[in-house]
Amino acid sequence: MKRGNLVLVMFLTLSGIFSVLDAQTACKVLKTEISWSYTGECRKGLAEGSGEASGVDFYKGDFVKGLPEGKGIYIWENGDIYEGDWKKGMKHGYGIYTFTNNNRDSVLAGEWKRDVYMGNPVMQHYVIEYRNSIGRVSFVKVGDRPYVRYKFSRNGIESLNINNLFMQGTSGAESTTASFTGFEEVKFPFKGKVMFNAPNSFQSATLTCELRFIINEPGSWIVTMFY
What we know:
With 227 residues, the chain is mainly beta. The protein has 2 domains: 3-119, Histone H3 K4-specific methyltransferase SET7/9 N-terminal domain (Single Sheet); 126-226, no CATH class. The chain has one helix at 3-26, and strands at residues 37-43, 46-54, 58-64, 67-75, 81-87, 90-101, 104-113, 116-119, 126-132, 136-143, 147-154, 157-158, 163-169, 173-176, 181-184, 190-199, 206-215, 220-226. The strands form 3 sheets. Strands 1-2-3-4-5-6-7-8 form an 8-stranded antiparallel β-sheet. It is elongated and about 75 Å long.
């Protein structure tokens, strides 16, 4: 290669490197503690998209308009770590904060709002995951003994006109007697599944009914299925 061409290639290569470095330098992070250096996506001179930023602290994750926003992990100079949701440079949404308190590792997991820990979200007493050919379901807590009892209702009246009953639960002893159908001595949260066949309102066809649910709160529960 001729000397002139070699010099030109070296010039273009160095120009490209300096252009990249200049672009990285021009891409700013607006959170002072991580504003010393940045590597990642950029838009209009600000960190935007996925990237890494460092200063006295370190952050890796999503950015919007120069600030952590979205999902990311932040490591403080003292070793504290937060991994979770961010908004406008603050912990906001669900996240896990690990820190040292009196020489012991401590964890705060739950909802955050503008850098303030709000606590764990309130757990629902029960959740219906799926139902088929069942109009509605009633969950009633009647005591403290750990059981889940099933009742079946047609037109507001308890009905035993069902066939091929199938019950499944994550704990407890299955029981089917004249006075009790369900699970006794269960542990909560309890995840259950019930399937059965029953005639429709006009007695002209057979329904395949199914219910899947979770009960989180311990106690004595009566689950009534209206089909």
